[in-house]
Amino acid sequence: MAKKAISVPGSKLYGPYTPGVMANGMIWLSGQIDVEAGDDTASQTAGALAKIDALLETAGVTKDAVCFAQVLLDDIGDFQEMNEVYGAWVESMDVKPARAAFEAAALPAGAKVEIVVQAIQTNCC
User: Fold this and answer.
1) Residue 118: which residues within 8 A CB-CB, separation 6 or more?
2) Which of 10, 24, 32, 118 qualifies as a cystine partner to 48, CB 3.0-4.6 A?
3) Closest to 36 in 3D by CA, of 61, 10, 62
4) How far apart are CA 119 and CA 8, in angstroms?
5) Cα separation of 36 and 39, whole Å?
6) 65 touches 125 (CB < 8 A)
7) Contact at 8 Å (CB) between 69 and 99?
8) DSSP tag of 97
9) What pLDDT score was predicted for residue 125?
10) pLDDT digit string, tens, across residues 76-117
């Protein structure tokens, strides 16, 4: 199966990358940020997760297909604020994704949080 690009029309990009790629039943989403959502970590987390939901929908899956999430914070002190929003997002999932979260200085566009996910097509293989 060839690689297929996943994107949502009108989404702002911060560099030369594809928002998502699908191949052989795997879905990789580029790090999602949403600095337009607000100045606080909770708003930006909600915005990034909304972008992830939209990209997953474009790929024909839901967040239940997510197997791994990586959360980058510009300040690890904001972990709890991010975790509350993220926790609400995964609450309904029977199997929550594996996850890593850590501090990474100087995220793109001055973002407070960036979220990367990997998912699978449940009907593929």
Assistant:
1) 26, 27, 28, 29, 66, 67, 68
2) 32
3) 10
4) 17
5) 8
6) no
7) yes
8) P
9) 47
10) 999 999 999 999 999 999 999 999 999 998 999 999 999 999
Query: What type of residue is 58?
Result: T
Other beta carbons within 10 angstroms of residue 93's beta carbon come to: 13
CA dihedral 64, 116, 48, 5 (to 10 degrees): -80
How would you classify the pairing of strands 66-73 and 26-32?
unpaired
Residue where the block lists tokens 């992830």: 52
Place of tokens 């560099």: 15
For residues 111 and 81, the answer to whether their CB atoms sit within 8 Å is no
- For the record, the structure tokens of 36 come out as 């337009």
Homologous superfamily (CATH) of 19-120 is RutC-like (3.30.1330.40)
Compute φ and ψ for 25, nearest 5 degrees. 80, 0
